[in-house]
Amino acid sequence: MQKRKIIIINGPNLNLLGKREPEIYGGDSFEEFFKKLQNKNPEFQLEYYQSNIEGKLVSKIQQAEGEVDGILLNAAAYTHTSVAIHDAIGAITVPVVEIHISNIYKREEFRHKSIISSKCVGMISGLGLKGYQLGLEYFKSTNK
After folding, report:
1. Residues at the annotated binding site for substrate?
2. Choosing from 25, 48, 78, 132, which is the catalytic residue?
3. 112 catalytic, yes or no?
4. Can you say which residues are annotated as belonging to the binding site?
5. How far is Cα 74 from Cα 71, in angstroms, rounded to an integer?
6. Are strands 44-50 and 4-10 parallel, antiparallel or unpaired?
7. I need a surface site. Which of 15, 42, 69, 120 has the fewest CB within 10 A?
8. What are the catalytic residues (predicted)?
9. Nearest Cα to Cα of residue 56 among 82, 30, 38, 32
10. Domain extents for the chain?
11. Which of 50, 44, 61, 55 minimizes the C-alpha distance to 96?
């Protein structure tokens, strides 16, 4: 049986996990967490991509078409500003689950609005890094 391919795409500043505001984001680097996630989910072929550059995130989303079965997307600050990422998600048929480590509704008011949500199959917010595992649970439960 072929493993389903899921890519995790993380946006700006998530390369600083483990260092940046640990009271909000925790003390683990994403690379450390990703290894644990891979070990816990052997039924998936997981990939990971991170960029601080909006255009590179758009390109990675576009490249996912026909290559992966799902995307876990933490667009970070671009969640609240990027029409380009919104449009890229809308241009592909790959299902996208929006992930936020922090609860965006408990933070600054400008973070309460997600521009990308309307193009995603769902959103997980405020459950820390566990949100990525919950996103994988969605893909376990569906053929989408």
Report:
1. 74, 80, 87, 101-102, 111
2. 25
3. no
4. 74, 80, 87, 101-102, 111
5. 10
6. parallel
7. 42
8. 25 (proton acceptor), 100 (proton donor)
9. 82
10. 4-141
11. 61
Catalytic residue among 48, 86, 100, 132: 100
Pairwise CA distance, residues 32 & 65, whole Å: 27
Q: Are strands 122-125 and 44-50 parallel, antiparallel or unpaired?
A: unpaired
User: Does residue 69 surpass a pLDDT of 70?
Assistant: yes
For residue range 118-139, what is the model confidence (pLDDT) as tens digits? Answer: 999 999 998 989 999 999 999 9
Q: Residue 105's pLDDT band (boundaries 50, 70, 90)?
A: low
Residue with tokens 């078409």: 65
CB atoms within 10 A of CB 76: 19
Q: What is the mean pLDDT of residues 99-108?
A: 78
* Domain 4-141 class, CATH top level: alpha beta
Polymer length in residues for the chain: 144
Q: How far apart are CA 107 and CA 144, in angstroms?
A: 32
Q: How confident is the model at residue 86 (pLDDT cuts 50, 70, 90)?
A: very high
